[in-house]
Design goal:
The chain is 50% helix and 13% strand. The chain has 234 residues and is of the alpha+beta class. The radius of gyration is 31 Å and the shape is elongated.
Length: 234
């Protein structure tokens, strides 16, 4: 029998032993005399008893489970906080009776309550038809010239935007924008764009969850048609 054959047989035997012990976890309680003959090596060197090794393994697994549980609790708390903030914002949006009130409630709440560094709500329509409003109204033609790539998306886009997109969405703050999350607002026709941003280029990433921002966008999509007419209707 050569070395390779012997190694294969030993591997099979080891698997058989491991399988047997899994099916008979009380084996050593019936054969405790074997415990004195087992040889275990501690990672730092030196021999340890089977019980010590089991305790060490269980301790490590316990610490890992605690870390996982802590992360789950932290995520749950963050979600609870976001839900409460979103609920308050939605109520303020529903209570708004003018376009200015709706826009002010959205932008100011995102900045003050959600602690968003930059927030922008650009609405599409005829600027001449909305003179006197504090809301930013841009023609859809102008928007398509600068942010056509964002308009084609039906979901939230996160990451670093192109310079012309940043200038259109944040005209007064474009030099400070590092990354952003942008969601198009659409009913039966394009309504506008909701954008939040950070000076940190890596803050908004493509892997970031956008559930709550998407929910706010859905609420706006149901309220804005009260104030914005379809293109060609003034």
């Amino acid at each position: 029998m050569d070395v390779h054959e012997r190694a294969n047989i030993e591997a099979v035997d080891a698997d058989a032993v491991a399988d047997y012990l899994k099916r008979h976890p009380d084996f050593f309680t019936r054969r405790d005399d074997l415990l004195t003959e087992l040889q275990l090596t501690h990672p730092t060197g030196g021999a340890v008893s089977l019980l010590e090794r089991q305790v060490a393994i269980l301790r490590d697994r316990n610490m890992e489970m605690r870390h996982r549980l802590t992360n789950l609790i932290d995520n749950a708390r963050d979600n609870d906080r976001l839900f409460e903030l979103t609920r308050k914002l939605v109520l303020q949006l529903l209570e708004a009776t003018t376009l200015d009130g709706l826009v002010d409630a959205c932008v100011s709440n995102l900045r003050q309550e959600f602690k968003v560094e930059f927030a922008s709500l650009v609405l599409f329509g005829n600027p001449l038809s909305h003179r006197g409003t504090r809301a930013r109204i841009a023609s859809f033609t102008d928007a398509r010239t600068h942010i056509e790539g964002l308009l084609g998306s039906n979901k939230t886009v996160c990451g670093t935007l192109r310079p012309e997109e940043v200038r259109f969405l944040f005209p007064d703050k474009h030099a400070q924008i590092g990354s952003a999350a942008v969601v198009p607002l659409t009913a039966s026709y394009p309504l506008g764009m909701l954008a939040i941003a950070s000076s940190d280029p890596s803050y908004f990433r493509s892997s970031m969850g956008t559930l709550f921002l998407g929910y706010i966008a859905e609420v706006l999509e149901r309220l804005l048609p009260r104030y914005l007419k379809p293109f060609g209707q003034g």
